[in-house]
Every structure is written in C-alpha cells, then in structure tokens.
Amino acid sequence: MVWAGIMINGRTFLHVVANGTMTGQRYIDEVLLPHVRLFRGAVGDKFVFMDDNATCHRTLAVQDCLDSEGIQRLVWQARSPDLNPIENVWDALERQVADRNYPPTNKNTLIRALIEEWDKLSQQLLDNVVQSMVRRVECCITPHDGHIPY
C-alpha cells in the first residue's frame, strides 16, 4: 500500500506503508502529520485535502487531527473513485512499473520500482489530473438545487 499527494507544480514523496492494517491512528502518524501537514504548510490557506474515503480516513481521531491542523477536507461521495484524480496517477504508475525492462520480482524490488517510477512521472500528468478536478466536481453537483446526485 502506498500514499502520495499531488498538486499543481508539486508532489510529495511516495510513502510506502509498512506491513499491517492501516488504522485511523496509523494514518495520522504515517501520513497526515509527516506528509499532509507539511504539504498544507507549503500550499497555504487555499489547501484542500482529498482522500479516498477509506474507512480508516473517516475516524473521529482523523477528523480531530485535520481540524487541529486547520486542514480542510474536500467532501465527496463515498465509493466514487472515478472522482478522485489520484486514481489516474496510480494507473500511470502501475503501467510504468509493468513496462520496466526488469519487472519487480519481490516486495523489495517492487517498493524500489514504485519509488523510482513515482519520481519519473511527468509533472504535466499530475497537473492535468489536478486541473481535471474542476470538471469532476461540476459534473457531480447540480447547480440548481445544490444536491449531489447518487
């Protein structure tokens, strides 16, 4: 399992989650505090955080952490990965790893390949998927009544 953040003209390092189950507390300790908090600090007050609505991301402890750090979360429908631009990035990363001359043969070589290919992803690709978020949000919110269709 991996985590990374993207934005126009930037990205975080790829974080490889160690063995075990991702809990709300692990999410806070391994992702929010060391990565998201710093990313938010670099971006400033206009920073809006989007995650993938996983159960561990929705714990009260996670929300308390986001609130205490002044991190605004984008609210969007659960189980709608097509709305999350990072899914396109994961697809591109998966293709790059699969296209390597020497595909990974074990966990360690997979981790190394993921990190190397993450660093090679074009910033233009990341910028494009972030910019696509405007279209994704517009297609899901009905401007006449403000309701999100299900």
Give the gist of this structure.
InterPro entries: RNaseH_sf, Tc1-like_DDE_dom. With 150 residues, this protein is mainly alpha-helical.
Quick one: how many beta strands?
Answer: 6
Major β-sheet strand ordering = 1-4
Q: Segments where pLDDT lies below 50 for 5+ residues?
A: 141-150
Give me the secondary-structure category.
Answer: mainly alpha
Count of alpha/pi helices: 6
Using the alpha-carbon principal axes, give the shape.
globular
Helix content: 40-55%
Organism: Trichonephila clavipes
GO molecular function, one term: nucleic acid binding
Domain Tc1-like transposase DDE: 16-104
Protein name: Transposable element Tc1 transposase
Structure description:
Residues 16-104 form the Tc1-like transposase DDE domain. InterPro entries: RNaseH_sf, Tc1-like_DDE_dom. This protein is mostly helical. The protein has helices at 24-43, 60-68, 86-98, 107-120, 123-131, 133-140, and strands at 2-3, 6-7, 10-11, 15-16, 48-49, 72-73. Strands 1-4 form a two-stranded antiparallel sheet. Helix 1 (24-43) packs parallel to helix 2 and helix 3 crosses helix 4 (107-120). The chain is globular. The two termini are 29 Å apart. 13% of the residues are buried.
